[in-house]
Amino acid sequence: MNLTLGTLLPTNESPSLPAIQTATRQPVTLTVNGVKTELQLAPWTSLLDALREYMHLTGTKKGCDHGQCGACTVLVNNKRINACLTLAIMQEDTQITTIEGLSSLDQTSSSSKLHPLQRAFIDHDAFQCGYCTPGQICSAVGLLNEGHAKTADDVRELMSGNICRCGAYPGIVAAITSVMDSQPTTV
Amino acid sequence: MTQYTGRPLNRVDGVDKVTGKANYAAEFDVQGLLYGYIVNSTITKGKIRQIHTDDARRVEGIVSIFTHENRPKLAWFDLSYKDQDAPPGSPFRPLRDAQIQFNGQPIALVVAETFELARYAATLIRVDYEQETHQTDLQANRHKARKPAVGMATLFKPPPPDPRGNFEEAFRNAPVQVASEYVHGSEHHNPMELFASTVVYEKGRYKSGERYTIYDKTQGVTNSILYVSQVFNIPFKDIRVISPYVGGGFGSALRPQHQLFLAVLAARELKRSVRVTLTRQQMFTLGYRPATVQTVALGASSDGTMTAMYHDGVAVTSQFEDYTEVVTTWGGLLYPAEHVKFDQKIISLDVATPMDMRAPGGVTGVTALECAVDELAYKLGMDPLELRLRNYTERNMNNDLTYSSKELRECFRRGAERFGWAKRNPEPRSMRKEHTLVGWGMATGIWDAFHAPARAEAVLMVNGKLRVSSATADIGTGTYTIMTQIAADTLGIPMEDVLFKLGDTDLPVAPIAGGSWTAATVGSAVKAACEAVGEKLFKLARKLPNSPFAKVRFSDVLFAEKAIRLKKDPAIAIPLQTLIDANGGAAVRAISTSVPNLLKQRKYARNTHSAVFVEVEVDEDFGTVRVTRAVTSVAAGRILNPKTARSQIIGGMVWGISKALEEESVMDHQFGRIMNHSLAEYHVPVNADIHELDVIFVEEHDDIVNPLGVKGVGEIGIVGMPAAIANAVFHATGIRVRTLPITLDKLLTAATTEVSTS
Amino acid sequence: MNSFTYARASGITQAVVERSAKTDAAFIAGGTNLLDLMKENVARPTHLIDINHLPLTTITSIESGGLRLGALVTNADTAYHQQVTQRYPLLSQAILAGASAQLRNMATDGGNLMQRTRCYYFYDTATPCNKREPGSGCSAITGFNRIHAILGTYAQDQQVYCIATHPSDMCVALAALEAVVRVTGPDGDRTIPLAEFHRLPGDTPHLDNVLQDGELITAIDLPADGFPDHYAYLKLRDRSSYAFALVSVAAALDIQDGQIKDARIALGGVAHRPWRRPDLEATLTEKAPNKTVFQYVADAMLEGAQGFGHNTFKIELAKRAIVRALLQATNRPSAV
């Protein structure tokens, strides 16, 4: 790092003042989709950035980075949360599930092993651009785990933390209620 | 050839999207990637006197900071910065000089080893400005309205036609008149994906050359490569722009955005790979649907025949480009009034240049027009649907051409039937459930059926699979899926054996994906390329020993179930695999260019139409509005995939709800700054806002618009929706709100001050 | 976001000591508002003390007959807790009217009290804001103030320094229920009635509440009476969900033999803190619940309210909301 610093800064502006050190990286162990990984992270790295930039699990999306869109929804200890509003270092003892961990399939296997919600989202065309979709699906898994939604209106209200700019809401509600109907207990 | 086309099939990219495998522009992993973070101006107009980057440079891990002071020399002429969707004027050039032209203008790029470092260092940059007085308020500057300049962009957005007849006299003599002003705020596209460009820098692969592989959020990779090549003077061959998935566009990615420029600039200077992603807040510094003020005046005889029509519109643009929101032409396409006058003006303010946003001009103009028609219906004491039927036109009055197809009448009929319009009591405030007033409103929608040239390649590979490609985009519209359907049907190959590729400048060129033209444009090219492969296969088939095809013509064969077949006896067939073997085991390949048949097309007006019926519930005490159900019936030629097409219409309807009731970028003119620049405060609908939405497709047979007979469905869903909602709100409450969005305070204030008119 | 160090608190006392030792330190629990503000460069702590592992995560019955909500119980766990839904349904309803399911799973009850305003200018470091930078001025007074306060904005010198509102839904219900906040700090433990926890802006709008430097919220105590029979939380906003209140009303009534015995009305979205007028609530006692008396109280509660242009509609809206909420509370069938 320091090497590039010296070579690339214009010489006339080379700082006479001391360099500003930021909080150092430290080992942070995350358990994502059942796999423990030790990362070197500074405290300021959000769980979302840790997943996307440090673990390259880009299925979890960044749509606002402020808890205002739900695209970053993941499950922490089976509860849905916004990964943008927690620090990775705060999640060391938790079980994190991302969209990549929902289907038990490997890279090559067919779509038949998809999570029932993933299948339902495809069948009900519950997305267009697909960017909010992993967050919607993780949120829907959380919704089913919570068990508070009984009606389509409940689903609408309790899925309102996931914005879909393409406006696929009717498909999203249809997909979720179809899975609710077929699996009345937790998923 | 209809095994697939016309069927409600699942998206072929569905599995990628639901498993998180679909990669968007910021999601390509690159070794040694640097992160850029943009610093924006906090003033609206003036000059940067000094930009203090010393503190930021001291942060360990900061690689470089680019400002107007140290940026490299770039292309000099405006022309180099003109992209395919640039309006007349001088495109904005990031870091060009010390001038500030709008609030939030990018003024520096911090490049660091991590995203967090760049974000932090950006907060340490201090700027001394020399501020000048700015003008950002449309209403306060209406006296500056002027005619827009014309240019390339005018091609698809022609200015309104000259007046016909004598509007003033006809209006004066009309026994029934309405004249109203309609005000719309500005709106930002806010696709869910943040704008991002990942520029992969490689050196030495080609002699001493440098190579840039750019993953960009764009509705047209060709547009991005042209821009980068011209601005940075990098040869085409050294650039490749890739964009397999786009997390929503709605027009916002029709032009190359700041992050592309800045990421390439940094990569080129630092000789490193660089990614620049905008924050959500920064997305409000991009183009937007401009604020408008419109006046519509209609005169009719007492039987409802419209005789006089006037529509003027004033829209905001920047000081440096004449983006023109053409809102005033639509009346001439929908109603056959004899005496018409249209006027279209713009006002240059100290703001960023507006951009095309879903049904640009159309939804804004038609909303005003269709609200005015509703007002006229009430003045006449006539059912709004009946009034529209009374003034139905088979011709586009602006160019005096017959429509290539127009099933709007059938849309009205089926939409009204599904909705139950006949049961409507026309009296405002006549339907009530306790505190809730129920209202039913309707409107017409219209959009263009464009068709542009495009190229596509089809390759029947030795393994029998078909690879088809074109450098178009799928912004969620279903392009991947419908192109796969078209290709599969044209060559009789199962969809699972067809791979359609897009979003890559290595592929045959296609125009930017906008204006609802992609299905027609790229679809026609895909069909042509597959047919060209078919002809080659036919030639191979004829040459086979004892070929049953030896004496027939190409028009006598069809392709089905992986074989070439005789039309009159499909049992007589040769498997495609046999033909590949006959080709010496080589793939059969063809590239085709589809060009619109202008001779045929220009004799006709070509448009999509819709009829929209909406029910709203308004809380009488609070003015809160809910759209409880809506029916849109659409005539858009042939529907290739009713499932994905329906999603597009539903999405458009949700956008209509948003425009009518929620969406507005609110600027504080003290600062010239948009203040609700977040998804918490810039409201778009959430799931709980959306109830029963119903779509009816009225198919049209149309062999004039393009070889596929499709018209596109990306915009038509939004066009009539806001007017239908506003009209339903009037029916519910007796209050005519002419300023969108219809938020509760507007209804509440109108109700309490009793300023409502009807 | 600036750079900070991070440590997990091992115990309540240790957390308070660590926090007191560093002026620029902050506690982090759910993080939903703090990290949001840090990313906007509005909050700039140099040290974060993660209190999530402190033993403040339970809901327990207390001697008074009430319920104690540990400061670290999440909003979701509170809203769905059986004791809360049965005995304090107003609180449950208010919590569920706020934020999203995801945020409620993260946000804690203590953190909810610490939420900062959603004022656009407070959030945007490019504009002056007395709350963010005391003395820089209030942009909202002459700016876009649609979401801003209409009550309690004047300082003692009759000047207005800040028209921000408190954004919480939960706190509005807590105010109506007369909850008590338990805190611990360098000087020991103390309790603060919720009504006194949040401040009016006065001429020091940078202070949201009365917590002293280093103090930590440990619990929120709910009194024994949760008004389970007659309650309503009414929230008016720009979309059906996932939006902050323009105006909200927490109404709770004790009705016996057709007469009001006790009434509570708290308003959200109208002031720098949940707004109550116990003196006016008292005028409802011994009255039969009906629209006329409710309208009287509603008008009285908004007496002296002042709009700043875009937000003037809130005055009428609040009156109507109060009446509706009280009617809903009256008519709510007891025992669900």
TrEMBL record, chain A:
Keywords: 2Fe-2S, Iron, Iron-sulfur, Metal-binding, Oxidoreductase. InterPro entries: 2Fe-2S-bd, 2Fe-2S-bd_dom_sf, 2Fe-2S_ferredoxin-like_sf, 2Fe-2S_ferredoxin-type, 2Fe2S_fd_BS, Aldehyde_Oxdr_Iron-Sulfur, Beta-grasp_dom_sf. GO terms for molecular function: 2 iron, 2 sulfur cluster binding; metal ion binding; oxidoreductase activity, acting on the aldehyde or oxo group of donors. Residues 26-102 form the 2Fe-2S ferredoxin-type domain. It comes from the Bacteria. The keyword Iron-sulfur applies. This is 2Fe-2S iron-sulfur cluster binding domain-containing protein. It comes from Spirosoma arboris.
UniProtKB/TrEMBL annotation, chain B:
One of its GO terms (molecular function) is iron ion binding. SUPFAM superfamilies: CO dehydrogenase molybdoprotein N-domain-like, Molybdenum cofactor-binding domain. SMART domains: Ald_Xan_dh_C. It holds the Pfam family Ald_Xan_dh_C. It comes from the Bacteria. Residues 19-133 form the Aldehyde oxidase/xanthine dehydrogenase a/b hammerhead domain. InterPro entries: Ald_Oxase/Xan_DH_a/b, Ald_Oxase/Xan_DH_a/b_sf, Ald_Oxase/xanthine_DH-like, AldOxase/xan_DH_MoCoBD1, AldOxase/xan_DH_MoCoBD2, AldOxase/xan_DH_Mopterin-bd_sf. Gene3D superfamilies: Aldehyde oxidase/xanthine dehydrogenase, a/b hammerhead, Aldehyde oxidase/xanthine dehydrogenase, molybdopterin binding domain. This is Molybdopterin-dependent oxidoreductase. It comes from Spirosoma arboris.
From TrEMBL, chain C:
Keywords: FAD, Flavoprotein. GO terms for molecular function: FAD binding; oxidoreductase activity. It comes from the Bacteria. Residues 1-227 form the FAD-binding PCMH-type domain. InterPro entries: CO_DH_flav_C, CO_DH_flav_C_dom_sf, Diverse_Substr_Oxidored, FAD-bd_PCMH, FAD-bd_PCMH-like_sf, FAD-bd_PCMH_sub1, FAD-bd_PCMH_sub2, Mopterin_DH_FAD-bd. The keyword Flavoprotein applies. PANTHER family: OXIDOREDUCTASE (PTHR42659:SF1), XANTHINE DEHYDROGENASE SUBUNIT C-RELATED (PTHR42659). This is Xanthine dehydrogenase family protein subunit M. It comes from Spirosoma arboris.
